[in-house]
Amino acid sequence: MTIETLRVELGARGYDIRIGAGLLARAGAEIAPLLARPRVWVVADRAVAARHWATLEAGLAAEGIAARRLDLPPGEITKSWDRLREVVEWLLAERVERRDLVLALGGGVIGDLVGFAAAILRRGVRFVQLPTTLLAQVDSSVGGKTGINSPQGKNLIGAFHQPSLVLADIAALETLPRRDLLAGYAEVAKYGLLGDADFFEWLEEHGAAIAGGDLAARIEAVRRSCAMKAAIVARDETEQGERALLNLGHTFGHALEAATGYSDRLLHGEGVSAGCALAFELSARLGLCAQEEPSRVRAHFRDMGMVTDLADIPGPLPATQGLIALMAQDKKVLDGRLRFILARGIGQAFVADEVPEAPLRAVLDDALAAR
Ligand code: GLY
Questions:
Q1: Are strands 153-160 and 145-150 parallel, antiparallel or unpaired?
Q2: Catalytic: which of 26, 218, 254, 298?
Q3: Is 239 among the catalytic positions?
């Protein structure tokens, strides 16, 4: 079995990202060196546990590691104060100690929630990310951003808390519904769009293979995505500068997610793909890049069958001014000014500190009119 290893170079808080097929089955061997006692606590997405628990439990048991588990419902709604309390109280009731290890089994929702619970439990216990969605494998499990949502906006409550290890089992993607796979693929494409035109070209060539289940293509897509993220996080762990580029498409995306009530109408990654398309449209509108660039982005997303335009989002959406108001809650707002990640072309994103409202309104007006 090919296992790729990347290192997130953060000194004493550095850790490995392991990428390969079958890592859940050998989780015991991977985790054992980190344990002070042969016991772990797993917080899982219930739907993911139904598919992968037997494999993980056997993998842990093979190394004599006992595991206790708490299941939570799938969906963004789980990233809430109530579920945070449930996880923390469960871990306390289980007498989890600071030297212990908590495992997060699932997608970005579980990883963010459990990471945050680990950050605040006894002022910080260690945790391991076991991401089972493409989105979590290439983005949310790496880099230590943890947290929950507020009714006022996404990820507004949280902490930086790096995991001790990330095990990205590519075999888990085999049972991932296609909709979730494509939502995660938006974050893969994001890396090409923000900083690596060659990678975007590679994705244009291999996207169909990735969606179709080609293992080598999937490993390569996750490896290149994680390598880029690991390098950016190592240079700018707490997002004082460059890390903000990873939010390409997210200002639009978060507003769309809020507008759709964080519901099944729009998955996070779907908000990101629609958001990336809008960020490129806005960049062209501002004269930063040629119109061919957003057209090329949208063409690839369309070929992949991804959520690309606002017309792909079912149900009502607020008017332009309503969407702009939702963007103003974004964490990237500084002194009330809207900050966007824009691009001078594919692979050339930058942070734009003061985006005038008129072109933004025009882009949203057009996008809404096309619904
Ligand atoms: N998902 C954006 C970041 O980790 O910075």
A1: antiparallel
A2: 254
A3: yes
CB of 139 sitting under 6 A from ligand 1: yes
Hey, which bits of the chain come out as E strands?
3-8, 15-20, 39-45, 66-72, 101-106, 126-131, 145-150, 153-160, 165-169, 340-343, 349-352
For the domain made up of 3-175, the CATH class stated in words is alpha beta
Question: What is the C-alpha separation between 342 and 353, in angstroms, rounded?
Answer: 10
Give the tens place of pLDDT for each residue, 127-142. 999 999 999 999 999 9
Q: What would the CATH number be for the domain defined by 195-369?
A: 1.20.1090.10
pTM of the entire structure? Answer: 0.96
What's the pLDDT score for residue 271? 97
Max CA separation in the chain (angstroms): 62
**Could you confirm whether 229 is annotated as catalytic?**
yes
Token pair for residue 80? 């809430």
Three-state secondary-structure class, residue 311: helix
Domain spans in the chain, listed from the N-terminal domain onward: 3-175, 195-369
Q: DSSP of 237-303, one letter per residue?
A: TT-SSGGGGGGTTHHHHHHHHHHTTTSTTS-HHHHHHHHHHHHHHHHHHTTSS-THHHHHHHHHHHH
DSSP states along 188-215: HHHHHHHH-HHHHHHHHHHHHHHHHT-H
